[in-house]
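go over this chain:
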Amino acid sequence: MNGSDILVMLDFGTEGAADYRVVGCQRDAIVEEVSDTIEESCKAQRSQQVDAGRYSSTLSLDMLYVTDRDDLVRLRNANRNGDKIILARRENGAIVQRASAKIDSFAVNFPDQAESVASLACTIDGFITEAWVIGEGIIGSVFIA
């Protein structure tokens, strides 16, 4: 996955007319996928019997580049309001995966004598998918700056 960008998109549209646009991007992200374990054994069995339980995934961005102050405020407000965002993976100029997500934490570091750095941790809503249909619209190159 060399050359992959993680894009963070917010809905700029009105109710019923989604308009997702990129507000930030980063390389070097961490995606963690977890399947919980359900134990199905009984006390009479010596060996443990297990099955797959609930699946979940998270994504962490530690050096998120946000294009301008307005987009930083929009991202912060999405966190405060509990709005879902779209995370997408772009590889060699083409979007190859996407997921709807909830922001778990949003932080901005304001160092002395350096640029500000934003970080974002998200829980994926459902699965990371290859499909690019979102509601009625399709994410295409128009959203990629």
About this structure: The CA atoms of residues 9 and 69 lie 15 Å apart. The two ends are 20 Å apart (CA to CA).
